[in-house]
Fold this protein.
Amino acid sequence: MSIAGCNHVRVVADSGAAVEHVGAGAKAWLIPRPGLFERLGAGERVVHVSAPAGSGKTFLLRSWIAAEGLGERAAWVSVGREEHDPQAFWLSVLESLRGTRVGSERVRELTAAPDLDGATVVRRLLEDLGSLDERVWLVLDDLHELQAEEAIRQVELLLGSAPPKLRFVLSTRRDLRLGLHRLRVEGELTEIRREDLRFSLEESRALLEAAGVRLSDDALESLVAITEGWAAGLRLAALSLSRDPDPERFAASFSGREPAVADYLLAEVLERQPEEVTRLLLRTSILERVSGPLADRLSGCSGSERILWALEDAGAFVVSLDAERSWFRYHHLFADLLALELRRTAPQELPGLHTVAAEWLAEHGHPVEAIRHAQAAEDWGLATRLLADNWFGLELDGRRATGRRLLSRFPGGMVRSNPELAVLGAAAERFGGSLDAAERYLRLAETEASLVTGDRRERFQIALAFTRLSVARIRVDLHAVGEAAQQLLAYTDATPTVAPGLREGDLLAMTLTELGIAAMWAGRLEEGERHLDQALEAARRIGRPRLELLALAHRPIAGIFRVQRTGEEGAREAIELARKYGLEEDTAVAVAYIVLGAAHMWRGRVEEAEHWLELGESGLAQEANAAPGLVLCACRQVLEFIRGQPAQAMTYLRAAERMEMSFVMPHAWTLRMRGARLRGLIRLGETDRAERSFDEMDHDLRATPEMRVILAELRLAQDDPLAAAAAVAPIVDGALAVPAPLFEIQALLLEAIARDALRDPGAASRALERALDLAEPGGLLAMFLLHPAPDLLERQARLRTTHAALISEILNLLSGRIPAARPEDAEPLQEALSETELRVLRYLPTNLRGPEIASELFVSLNTIRAHLRNIYAKLGVHSRADAVKRARELGLLSPSSLRR
């Protein structure tokens, strides 16, 4: 049957549907309402339209936008039915604003990503629209459907912080907790309620006449009185009136009670529609969204797309969801009633329809919707296959929470008894932080592995091996990590064939990332860096931003243990990547934050370190992971020792030790934690317990740099400076290699303290100067705060030290004053300064002239002049003052300015 003219499709437009695309036929339903239009146009910064379903909220707003010509300045977002996904909501807001004329120039693009947080989108929008110089309206329709509390709070934040030119129109069925009471008090809220939305006689007449219905004044008054001006009732009445041979009689007998009106009129609509339209509407009512080809499959007919177009053009209950008009949805009220009618008339068809929908959606690349329909059909076999095939694809696309929700909809016993679901249960528990539960699911999957046969066996083995690998990485179990990785690498070339949810290269990048992270936390830094470099290259090649972020965020872990500036630079690169893709809240970024916290900690910047560590802690809360959590606690115990709070430091150490109990192998920080525990005993005055611990320690452990430093600290606490100097002598003399400069700095500082106590000021000064030599380039001042010796430092400053500025900085930190931060973005040198040039450079901030510097260094004045020429050339400056300034920017000299 042809429907080219659309004359027989007599479905009236719904009153609550948001229209992203307005067809020519729909424009006839735009009814002038000048009073409300004026209130909307002159409204305060926020307009709240609150009224029950069908009151004409959406109808009013789309009419106003069309009448006032605001199409290019109004962003429209319709919140989906019971929307639980804050990411989807905020991406819709951003894309809608980008669709406005002004927004297209200002609002940056942002794509879906794992753990993308609404707060990130809000911050981006506030930045992009901060200088808005003309009005833009953001219409949030059906905002009551937004179920995520965090998204509601973020909407409130946006309302309170937006620039004045960004205006909001909120359409809801009920009042929401959005801080509107504050806006009301401040005079920034315009409210439109149900009473305001009631249609007057003249507005009702215009509405009916737009549908081709003319009534006498008496009949119209009767209809308006019965419906009380309720928009949906009037429009539904218009539908039946347009087909009834006696509209006057029908209007007089029309029922005004809202549920009865809806039930009666929708039944009238369905009964009076052509059979193929009724069949399409009923059989597609199971869908959240419908396309022409999908409707064809469900209805068993062709031409469904033309029917959907005609229904929308007629201003019916159909709304297009894209500019191409390929996907549609039904108004919520209409969809509910269609579904009710289908259950009433053909309940036996429901399972089959859901199965057909699941198969079509799976074939056309919509796995989440397909799984939901398979579950609705209770076709658990199909649902299992679809979820197992797409699980890791959902993870890489940032839809981990969606995958877990889908898994939760299976009967509990099925997840435990089906090996494919058991693997997914293990993955879900691993992300939830329950490793014991994850391992129980893995054992169940392995026990029932023989049930997986045919072409699904390889897919199952990939999922099983990767989940084993992930759990083993969290456990720091390198043996199990290696075994699982070997299994996975055998499948990398065949991934697209055996695992359709993954792209070519995904499995290799995922495996290398897990290998690298596990090696890092086990202290195998070179191995970890190698794997992560390979993972980073693979992730960039295949275009997987989150895999790239994982590799970038974890590679700087080496910097924590080596105490290198390269770790800090890598962490900042990871954070910048996260900002680029809207991944600031991703759990991987927490590791980068912790690296930055450690970097500031080693430089003695306690407040800055705490800031980054707090961000790291917040990120780790999203996904339980003991390995970085242990480092977080270890950093905090160092800060507490610096603050002089050993009892609190021991609290953090105990927390870290509890985390360590879940590891199979020692964590990279294990040895330092043992040393920190002994330091805590010493500083709490429990030197006897510390002594017993050293007595029970094997020789090799006692001889490590970590333990020699702690032993020296113990001997100083026991008033035995000679034994303290002996403890660190192999480090001071260079006979013992140290894993990081901080151990050598500590050893030299403790040597200086011991020699001073032994009344050997010359030896004390030499040791302290060497410690300052090592600390100056990277600003590693934490050791001077852990082992405070202000008298020694002040004496050294009077002895014409080459580190006067650094000593000043340390003394400021010890007195509670905060030196200016070192610049992070200084242009690096093309050629590094030599050791001799660095020694000369350190005299430049002093008042010593050239001859005096030459005397201090036992060289000629000409040699000093030659060194100065080289220093100026390498720094790209022409004066002593500029050389000092440039050197401070590069971190070659300590900053001298203070901020209180």
Notes: The domain at 505-684 is CATH 1.25.40.10 (Serine Threonine Protein Phosphatase 5, Tetratricopeptide repeat).
